[in-house]
From TrEMBL:
Entry's Gene Ontology BP terms: L-tryptophan catabolic process to acetyl-CoA; L-tryptophan catabolic process to kynurenine
InterPro entries xrefs: Trp/Indoleamine_2_3_dOase-like, Trp_2_3_dOase
Protein name: Tryptophan 2,3-dioxygenase
GO MF annotations, alphabetized: heme binding; L-tryptophan 2,3-dioxygenase activity; metal ion binding
Amino acid sequence: MTGVTYSGYLRLGELLATVRPMTRAGNRRVYAAEHFFIVAHQTTELWLKQVLLDVDCALGAASAPDRDLEQAALGVQRAAAVMRLLTEHVGVLRRLAPRDFADFRGGFGQASGADSEQFARLRLLLGAEVSEEREGPESPLYTELAAAAAEWGTSLDTVYRRAPHSGALYRLAESLVELSQAYWAWQVTHVEVVSGAIGRARGTGGTSGVDYLADRLTTPFPEIWRARRCLHEPTLVPELG
Ligand code: HEM
């Protein structure tokens, strides 16, 4: 007997106590709607913590002197699976009625998902930081993939042309494609949810809302997408290795 209990191990007391709507509990309809809104955000942030951990571990494996790309691919695949799940987490907010949302939205002032530090870290890891002025820095995941390919005397174009016989390089590249698509799907679902919830109204973070978000839609790892595209348009390939 270890004396460890289910709720103790999971710290459920603390965890469940963190869901605290600002609406008075007596106002059942709005209280339940705000509770729903908070849970969707909090669970997303919890899962994001896992995504960042898995991506960090993958990066560590890929950049180690022995470059364990197989381990890195497994980590990225898990991060991609969780990112897919997060599409459902944001999508469930289609069930937030605009009237209920309007009744508690004023309470959180200028707070906005745009302030999420974990999402900001994720964008950096994916090389997905976009702004009108400049491209963001390259994804460190892609940097390691490209370095490994160069060290092993090949290129991404060749990896894709020889697939599925390109081993760990191919598996890591494809896991990044999964992550790229899951991230894209999250953004698209988020825009849809935002347009359902607030239409063309401005965001609490001060942006134009839907138009701003639509402009920021991005598919991470453009170099890998390019190598895949070369299979359809071989004239894009600089040299055949
Ligand atoms: C009814 C639901 C939601 C609405 C109406 C909404 C609205 C918005 C709006 C209007 C923005 C643009 C910034 C601003 O002006 O505030 C934004 C950004 C953002 N929201 Fe949401 N959001 C919702 C749900 C969520 C959820 C569940 C998450 C997950 C934590 C989330 C995460 C984000 C992130 C990460 C950004 C920044 C996106 C970027 O910079 O490209 N949002 N949201």
